[in-house]
Amino acid sequence: MASIYDYELERADGSRFSLAENKEKVMIIVNTATGCGFTPHYEPLEALYEKYHEQGLEIIDIPCNQFAGQAPESDQEIHEFCQLKYHTQFEQFKKSEVNGDHQLDLYRYLKSQKGFEGFGKGPKALAMSALLLKMDRNYKKNPDIKWNFTKFLVDRDGNVIGRYEPTYDMGKFAEEVGRLFS
Questions:
Q1: How many other C-beta atoms can be found within 10 angstroms of the C-beta atom of residue 10?
Q2: Domains and CATH numbers, the chain
Q3: DSSP for 125-170?
Q4: Non-local CB neighbours of 116 within 8 Å, separated by 6+ positions
Q5: Annotated catalytic, 36?
Q6: Where are the active-site residues found (predicted)?
Q7: pLDDT (0 to 100) of residue 138
Q8: What is residue 169's predicted lDDT score, i.e. its pLDDT?
Q9: In sequence order, which residues have a C-beta less than 8 Å from that of residue 135 and are 6 or more positions away?
Q10: Which runs of E-coded beta strand occur in 35-146?
Q11: Which helix (H) or strand (E) holds 15?
Q12: In 3-72, which ranges are continuous DSSP H helix?
């Protein structure tokens, strides 16, 4: 049976990165975009990184342009944007696909571990549901990533313990990450 540590990613410079390098670390794996309404999630993600990195947190930031073309820049431009606007210190990997024929194998694995369970409640959740209904009336029935800033939380043993849609409250998400360090 596959493990999270069996997967590799390509860095923006073309070099390879094995997730096995993150054994015994907590990981947040997130598909991102620079022009999305959820782009401000970079701020609390960076705060989590600063708070827990020395205790073993790694953030795997995978830019993706599959959702309304909201990450059209080059890998270098995305990196510069994140550093200048949000002062991110975690690495942005090569822009990649998270759904479809060319999706990363890592995302196929993540979605097999934690499927889509809904957007929750509240105005943002309702707006996302309405938007996706216009695009795909059956969106609830598949595990695909629905939008930018979907986060997967992986514990120190390599278990995918949660999937958090972009509408999930970032304060509550921070609490869930924090529990892995208490």
A1: 16
A2: 4-179 (3.40.30.10)
A3: HHHHHHHHHHH-TTGGGS----STT-EEEE-TTS-EEEEE-TTS-H
A4: 139, 140, 142, 143, 144, 146, 163, 165
A5: yes
A6: 36
A7: 83
A8: 96
A9: none
A10: 57-63
A11: none
A12: 42-52
Whole-Å CA distances, 59 to 54, 80, 134, 137: 12, 17, 32, 32
Bridge-based pairing of strands 26-32 and 57-63 is parallel
User: Contact 100/64 with Cβ under 8 angstroms?
Assistant: no
Q: List beta partners, residue 17.
A: 9
Considering only CA atoms, which of 142, 182, 176 is closest in space to residue 162? Answer: 176
The token pair at 106 is 């890592």
* Helix pair angle (170-179, 42-52), 10° resolution: 20
pLDDT (tens, 9 = 90+) of the chain, 182 residues, equals: 789 999 999 999 999 999 999 999 999 999 999 999 999 999 999 999 999 999 999 999 999 999 999 999 999 999 999 999 999 999 999 999 999 999 999 999 999 999 999 999 899 999 999 998 888 888 888 999 999 999 999 999 999 999 999 999 999 999 999 999 98
Residue 146 is which amino acid?
A: K
Amino acid symbol at 76: Q
Which residue among the candidates 36, 62, 110, 154 is catalytic per the annotation?
36
Query: Would the pTM count as exceeding 0.85?
Result: yes
